[in-house]
Specification:
Blueprint lengths: L7 H13 L6 E8 L6 E8 L17 E6 L8 H16 L12 E7 L4 H11 L2 E6 L2 E5 L4 E6 L9 H4 L9 H10 L6 H13 L1 H19 L1
Parallel strand pairs: 3-4, 4-7
Antiparallel strand pairs: 1-2, 2-3, 5-6, 6-7
Length: 226
């Protein structure tokens, strides 16, 4: 089942809320933040409500006062052009203010989030821009050597313990243990709108595997009940 374009960005926004948990209340998260009057928009803009307060969650430890996120859906790739687009958005966001230097560039970050490790993009920024890629945690890399602080998050590499919902936001889930675990984890959260948004996209993106798992469960129940 795949009714129209899957709303991966909506599901990722819900994942951000889930992953950040109680700390989400310390942040203001804006989806598709418009840049000026022209149709340019940042995928996600995260603003710290209290700039000096540290975020403890692994994906947010890196955050400063102004945080731009460029998100790629599971079947998309982070290209060299995507890097420059997001970098340009960051520069435009800093400059599109009423007062000069109203946004301190030292308090600005860019996070690139994707499912596939962007080999060509990383090779380019290393050779052309002299940026180093340093792994900080499972699936979390800092891009060192630019005036603007940047990090790269590879969702499928994230910890299943620390970042369960973000790492499972994929379209290649396997019937059996993976989907069974997903359904079990979702059950106690099924009335939460964030979890509902994630589950809706995951179900439609992995429809065949979901149906296969449901058939197996129904068959197992019939066998047990005999």
């Amino acid at each position: 089942m795949n009714d129209g374009k899957l709303q991966w960005h909506d599901a990722f926004g819900a994942c951000l809320q889930i992953e950040l948990g109680a700390e989400a209340s310390k942040l203001e998260i804006e989806k598709e933040h418009l840049l000026g009057q022209k149709p340019m928009q940042i995928d996600f803009l995260i603003l710290k409500k209290h700039p000096k307060e540290k975020i403890q969650k692994n994906i947010g430890k890196f955050f400063k006062e102004y945080n731009i996120i460029e998100y790629k859906s599971p079947d998309d790739y982070l290209s060299i052009n995507d890097f420059y687009k997001a970098y340009g958005y960051a520069c435009f966001y800093q400059s599109a203010t009423k007062k000069t230097a109203q946004i301190d560039a030292r308090e600005l970050t860019i996070s690139f989030v994707c499912n596939h490790y962007p080999v060509k993009m990383l090779e380019h920024i290393q050779s052309v821009r002299g940026i180093q890629v340093i792994q900080m945690d499972q699936g979390i890399y800092q891009l060192i050597g630019d005036p603007i602080a940047m990090q790269l998050i590879i969702t499928k590499q994230l910890s299943k313990t620390e970042n369960y919902w973000m790492q499972i936001l994929r379209n290649d889930l396997k019937a059996g243990g993976e989907i069974k675990s997903l359904l079990e984890r979702y059950e106690p959260q099924k009335n939460d709108t964030n979890y509902q948004a994630v589950m809706d996209v995951l179900t439609r993106a992995n429809w065949e595997m979901m149906e296969e798992e449901k058939k197996y469960v129904r068959c197992l129940k019939r066998t047990v009940c005999r």
